[in-house]
Amino acid sequence: MNHASLLNRESFVELGARARVHALLDPGTLRELAGPFDQLVSPWLERQGVVPQADDGVVVAKGRIDGHPAVVLAIEGAFQGGSLGEVGGAKIAGALELAAQDNRRGVPTRAVILFETGGVRLQEANLGLAAIAEIHAGIVDLRRYQPVVGVIAGTVGCFGGMSIAAGLCSCLVVTREARLGLNGPAVIEQEAGIAEYDSRDRPFIWSFTGGEQRIATGLADRYVEDDSDAIRTTVREVLAQGVPAVHRSERYAHYLQRLAEYDPARQPEPQTVRTIYTHGATP
Predict the structure, then answer these.
(1) Residue 6 pLDDT greater than 80, yes or no
(2) Do both 27 and 148 map to the same domain?
(3) What Pfam families does the entry give (predicted)?
(4) Average pLDDT value over all residues in the chain
(5) CA 23, 24, 25, 30 torsion: positive or negative?
(6) Of 149, 70, 76, the residue nearest 110 (C-alpha)
(7) What share of the chain has pLDDT > 70, as a percent?
(8) I need a surface site. Which of 106, 128, 160, 219 has the fewest CB within 10 A?
(9) CB 14, CB 25: distance < 8 Å
(10) What is the largest CA-CA distance in the chain?
């Protein structure tokens, strides 16, 4: 990207959840559901000395994308690290369920999920886990009718149970700043030690879980610059492609075989991971 393009672009990563939704939906079509004025706060955070947020860190909006009915679900990474609790998780799961019902009634509603989350909120562990399981079920139900597109832009990334949600999407869009993994760097370091995984080593972290690596290993589908126009265009393109013939999650046998070819006694390297995922084990 040249200097003129850098000056003219609008960073998607720097936008908050609500502004990201505005950037994707057709102008004048946005209608927010269960918004901050509805005061849907978590009943658990204040009891533990945490100031709640009126929308519980999740923005749900109906509108149109390229003229077609759509619902956009955005997680606010700046609130509690984008963690999912009872209320925020229910908002996402409920919206996906309603979109699936729309399709069964003849209204072809598709969905876009903007992931910016560390996974389940520890203060609401079991309730959050149940909500994330409902989100998984909602994605699988809706993707039978219309594509469910996931976008991971940055800076929090997508981890924990919500990384499974990302893997269930019909198409996953990532930027260079994105990160995707089941366990976050700090969690791995805590459990395995800094010698195994240094969560402060940013080049190391991105070399394994960053957007470029996830594209190279086939765990994400589209790679875009951190530019709102580029992400909007890409989302429209992948929605127009419709439901894929085979979803990535249905190819589990392929990925199990790839994992079986890895020797856990050897310290992994980013290129080794790429080779295994794309060509099988090295001789």
Answers:
(1) no
(2) yes
(3) Carboxyl_trans
(4) 93
(5) negative
(6) 70
(7) 96
(8) 106
(9) no
(10) 60
b/e 41-76 (16+ beta carbons within 10 angstroms → b): bbebbeeeeeebbebbbbbbbbbebeeebbbbbbbb
List, in sequence order, every residue forming a beta bridge with 113; answer none if it has no partner: 73, 150
3-state secondary structure of 94: helix
Domain of 269 in residue numbering reads as 246-283
Task: Please check whether residues 10 and 53 belong to one and the same domain.
Answer: yes
pTM of the model: 0.94
**What tokens were used for 103?**
């399709």
CA 151/CA 22 separation, integer angstroms: 14
Express each pLDDT in 211-257 by its tens digit: 999 999 999 999 999 999 999 999 999 999 999 999 999 999 999 99
Question: Is residue 259 domain-shared with residue 170, that is, in the same domain?
Answer: no
Q: Letter for the amino acid at 240?
A: A
Rounded to 5°, the CA angle 146-221-173 comes to: 75
Whether the Cβ atoms of residue 90 and residue 32 lie closer than 8 Å to each other: no
**110 and 66 in a common domain:** yes
Which tokens go with 49? 């000395």
Non-local CB neighbours of 82 within 8 Å, separated by 6+ positions: 57, 75, 76, 115, 116, 117, 118, 156
Dist CA 197 CA 154 (whole Å):
21
Rounded CA gap, 281 and 246, in Å? 24
CATH number at residue 214: 3.90.226.10
- Domain co-membership, 230 together with 270: no
Which whole number is the average pLDDT over 155-171? 96
The C-alpha atoms of residue 69 and residue 64 are separated, in whole angstroms, by 5
Tens digits of residue pLDDT in 52-90: 999 999 999 999 999 999 999 999 999 999 999 999 999
User: How many domains does the chain fold into?
Assistant: 2
Cβ atoms of residues 13 and 175 within 8 Å: yes
